[in-house]
Amino acid sequence: MNTCPDCGFTYDSAAETCLTCGAHLGYPNVRAASEEPETKALAKRYEDAVERSKGRGSEDVLHAFENAVQQSHAVVNLELMRLQDFMSDGRVLYTNYHLAVRAEVREAAKAEFDRHRRSVDAMLFGGYADQIRYAALSIDGRGLKSYGPYTLILKDVAVAKRSSVLEENSFDFCKRHALKPGDAIPEGYRAVWVTRQKLAVAKLADLVTSDMEEAAFGALLLYSGPERDADRYIEVQIFGAFNNNAVESVVGSTSSGRFHEVATAAIIKELVIDSGKTWVEE
Question: Which residue from 229, 264, 234, 245 is spatially nearest to 149, judged by alpha carbons?
Fold first, then answer.
């Protein structure tokens, strides 16, 4: 039973604020990842992964990987036109599929994908599914190019308090665990932002070898395939909207594409730099 610390009345697990006294209860996705059974299960997976690495002689490299993930960022990828809209106006919010369809600013996906998207989000988040924005963890600034060629690296301050992380893409997670509506989410596969490195170790420790170079850590954490179903990454689940003030830097090219695309990218680069952010040329 969830009890408000201010007034003592109970509240629903999907609530962000107490309906009795208005106290902020924390972000529900973060609360879910912070529950004791969840953190204990993750701790066990982490400890087992470290023990296995000792037997392979890769413990030192694994700890170096863990330290690198502790400095990782949340990244999202955009197509050029959406990047232009987002970076040129601070009033434009980074939205999600549900809200964009509801606001009639985009069409719903094909029926099969639409049903899948809605069912997966409902299984993982219930009543607050439409508040979740998806990102990925990145060590080196690389993002998921299947979502667009331009990568936004988000500031830690923009995501740290309101983000949970899931071991993999939520579609793949639900499929792998054969989840159905009403099923409990398997424990130990989620974490809060400050323990994201432990989730990465639990997931990837067996792929870390004693001779692995630190330069390989980035591709181990996030692999961007030619199609979305080939992507491999740790998913960041951000509660609520954000604008371009949440962006630390943009990674992309101003020299590839057709003439008008090159010209548009150059204009966006100027906007990014003029707003005090960093442009990283690919």
Answer: 264
The span from the CA of 236 to the CA of 169, in Å, is 9
Q: What is the pLDDT of residues 136-147, one digit of tens each?
A: 999 999 999 999
Proportion of the chain in helix, strand, coil states, percent, rounded to 5? 50, 15, 35
Give bridge partners of residue 239 from the DSSP assignment: 132
Is residue 80 within 8 A of residue 150, CB to CB? The reply is yes
Encoding tokens for residue 151? 């990568």
According to DSSP, the β-strands at 247-252 and 278-281 are: parallel
Domain range annotation of the chain: 1-28, 35-281
Condensed to tens digits (0 to 9), the pLDDT of residues 141-200 reads 999 999 999 999 999 999 999 999 999 999 999 999 999 988 999 999 999 999 999 999
